[in-house]
Specification:
single chain, TIM Barrel, eight-stranded parallel sheet, binds pyridoxal-5'-phosphate
Length: 230
């Protein structure tokens, strides 16, 4: 079932790329395995998936320790400063950096363990109160601040779009994140890249790809609904 779901999502990715004149190789599918057991990750792994997303530091760390070492783990959830130690050195990319204070904690841990930690800046494009991420207006100054941290490498931007019934309603969100990336690139900050745009989830990843997503984070369409009560 998981393998079939992955094939199905990949087909939709290819079609969205065709519609927008993009090369499917530019788009990385991240299978969001949060709350799901290791055996389901292994099933997706057998289907060829190597990029997995988790939103809890300890859960990601546990899965990193017990599963194949060629898996690329993406930290996509809100990260508390005291949990940074579980993530630096294990995650290939932290998608959710939204404050200087968090960046300071990442810098400290990365320096201690002698690594350069790649990160994305999480932008709350739609300005939803329930969501983490900084506002579009604050993004430029945050990027400039964090670009000075020697053990952090900014690779791009991430957003979580609102929950909508019609994915077209989120098109402007994705377009705005893409434009913000272009504006940052124009500033030519040292140590800052904006090659990665992490946007689009099960309900809206096709629209996100049409608007330039290079990483889509898909959970439900691959692993089924999540049950938070178990
Ligand atoms: C859970 C989660 C996803 C996946 O959501 P689905 O709707 O299940 O595809 C994507 N991004 C983030 C940040 C998440 O927390």
């Amino acid at each position: 079932m998981i393998q079939e779901n992955i094939r199905n999502v990949q087909e939709h990715i290819v079609k969205a790329c065709e519609r927008s004149g993009r090369d499917p190789k530019e788009v990385t599918l991240i299978a969001v395995s949060k709350t799901k057991p290791e055996c389901m990750v292994e099933e997706a792994y057998a289907a060829g998936t190597r990029d997995f997303g988790e939103n809890k530091a300890q859960e990601m760390s546990r899965k990193y320790d017990s599963l194949s070492k060629d898996i690329r783990w993406h930290m996509i959830g809100h990260l508390q400063r005291n949990k940074v130690k579980y993530v630096v050195g294990k995650a290939c990319l932290i998608h959710s950096v939204d404050s200087v204070r968090l960046a300071e904690a990442i810098q400290e841990q990365a320096q201690k363990t002698d690594v350069i930690m790649p990160v994305l800046i999480e932008v709350n494009v739609a300005d939803e109160e329930s969501k983490f991420g900084i506002t579009t207006e604050e993004t430029m100054s945050l990027v400039e601040e964090i670009s000075k941290f020697p053990n952090i490498s900014i690779k791009g931007l991430m957003t979580i779009a609102p929950h909508v019934s019609n994915p077209e309603e989120n098109r402007w969100v994705f377009r705005k994140l893409k434009q913000l990336g272009v504006d940052i690139k124009d500033k030519n900050y040292n140590n800052v890249n904006v090659d990665i745009l992490s946007m689009g989830m099960s309900g809206d990843y096709e629209v996100a790809i049409e608007e330039g997503a290079t990483m889509v984070r898909v959970g439900t369409s691959i692993f089924g609904e999540r049950n938070y009560n178990i």
